[in-house]
Specification:
Layout: H1 7-33, H2 43-53, E1 61-64, E2 71-73, E3 78-82, H3 83-87, H4 91-109, H5 112-141, H6 144-181, H7 190-230
Parallel strand pairs: 1-3
Antiparallel strand pairs: 2-3
Helix pairs in contact: 1-7, 2-4, 4-6, 4-7, 5-6, 6-7
Length: about 230
């Protein structure tokens, strides 16, 4: 019953979308990694310029191993760029580097959705670990209250992913606007920047969709069981 619910078909489609999104991110990054930016700046240099322009002199830019491992660490207040981005001077390198700086700027200006995301994190970290255990135990034991509790915890994880979407889209829009205003890219290069940032955003959309469909599935199963118990 749990594993062959009609909603599984939609979840399977969403999972396929997620795999395609990840494939597209890598493909798009690889394509525009071959196109040098007219400014000649590396990802590290571009990130440093933008951070300094925003008065974030105390936020360092550090290289990290791996590929597409770029992120902004809000606890240490560090922009960490994968080596291809840190040392590269391509459209892809600049796009990803400036996107991560976008998160640092969000942190500085207390962007509301980012603040909410940070506040949710401790709760979500606990909830996402507990939810699967509660749901599995609830379905095995046919205990509706346990399933309901699992759904509540799982809802917190889904809400976190939904809140992540505007955070990522906003960081990308900030990045592109700053790249243009600072002269990092020319008009003909804007298309490449949009492609790179858009492909990355799609992975977050797919992940949120999968979680949302799973939540709906659990709610429908829970509602069906509750109705059966009442009868």
């Amino acid at each position: 019953m749990l594993f062959f619910h009609p909603m599984d078909f939609l979840i399977l489609i969403a999972f396929g979308l997620s795999l395609w999104a990840q494939f597209r991110v890598r493909g798009t990054f690889n394509k525009w990694e071959q196109v040098p930016a007219s400014s000649g700046l590396t990802g590290a240099q571009a990130a440093r310029v933008l951070l300094d322009r925003q008065g974030l002199y105390d936020v360092p830019v550090e290289p990290v191993h791996g590929r597409l491992t770029d992120h902004y660490d809000p606890l240490s207040r560090v922009v960490r760029l994968s080596e291809p981005v840190y040392y590269g001077s391509s459209i892809s390198s600049l796009s990803v580097a400036c996107h991560e700086v976008g998160h640092a700027i969000q942190h500085k200006v207390h962007y509301p959705m980012l603040v909410l995301r940070h506040r949710m994190f401790p709760v979500v970290s606990f909830a996402s670990g507990v939810a699967p255990l509660l749901l599995i135990a609830g379905f095995l034991m046919q205990w509706a209250n346990l399933i309901g509790l699992g759904i509540i915890f799982f809802s917190a994880a889904v809400a976190f992913q939904v809140v992540t979407l505007p955070v990522e889209f906003n960081a990308s829009s900030r990045a592109k606007a700053l790249m243009i205003s600072e002269g990092f890219i020319r008009n003909e290069e804007e298309r490449g920047v949009s492609k790179v940032l858009g492909a990355a955003a799609l992975t977050y959309v797919a992940a949120a969709l999968i979680s949302l469909l799973e939540l709906i599935k659990y709610i429908l199963i829970f509602a069906g069981q509750s109705q059966s118990d009442d009868e």
